[in-house]
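Known limitations

Structure tokens in this collection are predictions and should be treated as such. Users comparing against experimental data should check residue numbering before alignment. To illustrate the layout, the record for Phosphate/phosphite/phosphonate ABC transporter substrate-binding protein is reproduced below. The input appears on top and the generated tokens appear beneath it.
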Amino acid sequence: MSGLPFSNRRRQLVCAAGAGLAVAAWGTAHGNDAAMPRKILFGTTAVFLDNQARLLMKWRSRLEAQLGTEVHFVQRGSYGEITEMLLADQIDVAWICGYPYVTHADRMKLLAVPLYEGKPLYRSYLLVPSAQTSVTTITELSGRVFAYSDPQSNSGYLVPRTELIRHGLDPRRFFGKAFFTFAHRKVVEAVASGLASAGEIDGYVFDTLAKQVPGAVTGVRVAWKSPLYGFPPIVARRSLPVDTFARLQSALLGMTEDVEGRLLLDRLNLDRFVIGEDALFDDIRKLVKLSDTMPA
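Generated tokens:
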């Protein structure tokens, strides 16, 4: 939390304490498990946690012990599928991107935001083959093949799309060909293999791959980094009971308090989870408005 202004740190500490007090008060009045649902369904996508079965199993065990109920991770191949399930109350919480969050903020509740390198922020990275040393901006890729990650990804679709619009270019016609991989890691693979001339992904994902699986980023180079945006949040369905929401939030915020939680955070390459503010995603809202000036 050291990278945040003091006022933000103080606000998060007060909010965390408030969440803890709410859980304690509820537990005293009703018994620890009285109002918990029989099962919590936690949505994730293939964007990052696609080959992390062992991590998810450990995280599931921890959450079940803390909440006193079953927890199941529900994985799908796109943000769109998970978002629709959340909006239809088919899952309880989900780790999504800031893009679907800002477009459906009135139908979901902000549960927690990861803190990465001291801030609840991340960047989009433009990737090109390592041998391509001259490219420094997406505007130099006219007529090339481009790999997007997911149509509801801020870093892997909204940022490159609006970067072209900002320069007066039509993203529908700028590239010779463009396609979606539906996973940031697959964007890396597409660029490294020559299937795409370039692509754009979540910088946190790229940095984590470079740290944990360095061979996965061999053959690609980061040509450009975007400004900072609100980190992909964990959100809850709007109808999730207040007490269940508070206990889940407390479990996420408390991961730094024991060895097992810190090990999970280390594997996720995160500092911790914090209570986020809706204003954190205002810059993504600006991108959505800019994108809406041109048909998809």
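For this record: The chain has a mean pLDDT of 89. Residues 6-30 form the longest helix (25 residues). Please report discrepancies through the issue tracker.
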